[in-house]
Amino acid sequence: MGQRLYLPEHSWCVDPERRQAAGMPDEVRFATQPGLAQEMINAAFVAGAEAPWVAGDEAYGRDPLLRVALEARGTG
Asked: 3-state SS string over the chain?
């Protein structure tokens, strides 16, 4: 399953020197927090986890893509 690293868009993602100093791979790009949550939830389901529902704060609840993906799986 694993975790995902959230990188602030305007400070880390666009600063090549900072990225290089931190050893950040070039393929790591900005993703919204709900997008990262969706990746982690999908990975958990693929690994066999079961969840009848998922909870999150308003940033996650307002993301229509995350909500649609969960509802498509039958997860509330």
From this structure: CCCCCCCCCCCCCCCHHHHHHHCCCCCCCCCCHHHHHHHHHHHHHHCCCCCCCCCCCHHHHCCHHHHHHHHHCCCC
Say how many residues make up the chain.
76
Q: Using an 8 Å Cβ cutoff, are 29 and 58 in contact?
A: no
CA distance 55 to 69: 14
Neighbours of 70 (CB within 10 A): 21
State pTM to two decimals: 0.76
Average pLDDT, the chain: 86
